[in-house]
Please model this.
Amino acid sequence: MYKEIIRPILFKIDAEKVHNLAIFLGSFLGKTRLSRLMRAKWVYKNKKLENKLFGIKFENPVGLSAGFDKNAQLTDILPDVGFGFMEIGSITAEQCFGNPKPRVHRLVKDKAIIVNYGLANKGAEHIYKKLKGKKFRIPLAISIAKTNDCDIKGDASAEDYFKTLKIMRNIGDFIVINISCPNTGDGRSFEDSKLLEKLLKKIKVIRKSEVIFLKLSPDISNKNLNQIIKLSRKYKINGFVISNLSKKREKLQNDANLKYSGSISGEPIREKSDNLIKKVYKKTKGKFVIIGSGGIFNGNAAYEKIKNGASLVQLITGMIYGGPAVISMINKDIVKLLEKDGYKNIKEAIGKNVN
Ligand SMILES: Cc1cc2nc3c(=O)[nH]c(=O)nc-3n(C[C@H](O)[C@H](O)[C@H](O)COP(=O)(O)O)c2cc1C
Model:
């Protein structure tokens, strides 16, 4: 019904307006607990999907990626949609209004989105106050990023990330440091290893038992990747989210929306993300937990990332194109694929494509 009736209507409306509508409805249904009525249809449970990482229990491996629930308005409804975990943000130290609109565009033929939000969010203090003391029904990840302000650079950038981390670190189950946001005003990410080390040093001083991931770009160079892995070993980073949006626009089909700036999600980045997951898993001999994201529209795509080394997967674009029922469909398909390969639990499949 979503693909045949709802999507054609939604896709006639500006993409950011539809996003805001989804947030409004999702937040309302979650708060009023009406979303619990949908659980029977949308939540799929199976022991084969369960995993425990860093003491955190994941009932299934499919999460919501950062960028959909920027201001943590959906934490009540997401467990009822069937997700195994959720990531909010990216959150920045100061409130960001983001880049000028329009800043989200669909590339329907490519099953992709051009994203140019520029880290629009209400800022760490606001989101912290809202979530303080709240219990969550599924694991929660906090994505933090640098405030989108070109005047914050160099050491001040490390300070800016650090401020957000200090505010948010007691909320949720793990932190993802988004060092690869492609859409900020200065057009730079935080993959510069000197700056990253400054931040990781600061974190080391105050760190207690926080579980910390770094989010990587699918466009990362080999040299940069090696530097980041080296730093991650030194500063005991727990894992990587692979990958963020891509700045590259190779092999896209002709579309009027290509005139807009921004970075690409969805099907065009699936393979790149798969390859990077495999590369990192191999280089690190599976020592870091990987969360795979990029172009997951079905169980096969999720399972490929798992066999390449991902312990968990995440998506946004797949849900926009496939509707919320896609989450249970992916989980059901993963179970079928695990059974076909003779695995009793998802843990046995992780990294099986890597030799
Ligand atoms: C509308 C939109 C907004 C996004 N905003 C963020 C963000 O704020 N922080 C972040 O780390 N990634 C952000 N991303 C990237 C996603 O988290 C994800 O890594 C990427 O879209 C690949 O997954 P997908 O192909 O399933 O969408 C955004 C993606 C989309 C589509």
In short: The mean pLDDT is 96.
